[in-house]
Specification:
Rossmann fold; alpha/beta; 23% strand; 12 strands; two-stranded antiparallel sheet
């Protein structure tokens, strides 16, 4: 059900009941509402998911947190790094559970970071956590976070600096696009989901292997806007006009500069696709020359 329709219908029904009945109805519907609005995934209790550990770092006077997976031997053997960013109102714990990339690619260092309260189009007062979407926003605190975490991981472990990746959903996808623009030299490839480049203004993206994930029924980040962004990426990456099948619901647009675009377009809403994680891992592995 459409999120706005669900909330509107619930509110109207609640208002038609006596006060006691209203409280009972909302208590009964709370689990369903939480799932419809992107709450804690099934099987997650909001704690630390298996396979990751708490992570903390001070950046610009803020205590920043997250979850990290470090493979055995990472101090000696070079390991790729994958940054994963949750959507607005989300959490590192929830995105670690929903993406689960550390389970699909245990040889990589996976870092799921936690955003700070940030204003957005649907949260004008900034009461929920999220990420900056343009340079200069929030004092560039999240760009500084990326820099500090990458430096910290590189100091502690044998990071493969040629293979650092970023992915994220919704607000996390918008921030992934910002990282592509502002920190392109640090990244080997990106995989934004349910996002566009529109909030960054008129910017040019350096050629970079990319995977874009979009639901055709997305009513929050309109599919047409995501299509326009994918066309922009194809131009920036010097991609062929015609694509070829790459995987389920995926089209590969080869590039003469070695910077292809994989477009994963599925019949879904703004909800992150449960089929996406293994495709993201496959795409990142291909940029490492690992085809398994």
């Amino acid at each position: 059900m459409n999120r706005r329709l669900l909330l509107r219908s619930t509110a109207l029904l609640a208002l038609s009941l006596p006060q006691t009945g209203c409280r009972v109805l909302l208590r009964q519907l709370r689990p369903a509402l939480k799932g419809a609005l992107g709450g804690t995934p099934k099987g997650s209790r909001g704690g630390t998911p298996k396979g990751v550990a708490p992570y903390q770092i001070m950046v610009d006077g803020y205590q920043r947190t997250g979850l990290v997976h470090v493979p055995p031997g990472a101090q000696l053997q070079p390991a790729p790094v994958v940054f994963v960013f949750h959507g607005h109102g989300g959490s590192a714990s929830v995105v670690a559970s929903s993406f689960g990339l550390h389970q699909l690619w245990p040889e990589a260092i996976l870092i799921y970071l936690q955003g700070l309260n940030t204003p957005s189009q649907l949260d004008r007062e900034g009461r929920k956590p999220g990420w900056q979407t343009r340079e200069g926003d929030q004092g560039d605190r999240d760009l500084h976070l990326f820099d500090a975490v990458l430096a910290d991981l590189s100091q502690k472990y044998h990071v493969d600096a040629r293979h650092v990746f970023a992915t994220g959903h919704s607000n996390g996808g918008f921030f992934t696009y910002l990282l592509w623009h502002a920190r392109s030299r640090a990244l080997a490839a990106v995989a934004p989901s349910a996002a566009t480049t529109a909030r960054m203004g008129n910017v040019t993206l350096p050629a970079k292997p990319a995977m874009h994930l979009a639901g055709t029924q997305d009513q929050i980040v309109k599919f047409a806007a995501q299509q326009a962004t994918m066309e922009q990426v194809k131009r920036s990456n010097h991609c062929d006009a015609a694509g070829v099948p790459w995987g389920p619901n995926c089209t590969l647009f080869p590039s003469r500069s070695g910077t292809p675009l994989v477009a994963y377009v599925y019949s879904g809403t703004h909800t992150f696709s449960s089929a996406a994680p293994p495709l993201i891992v496959r795409f990142f592995k291909e940029q490492c020359g690992v085809m398994r």
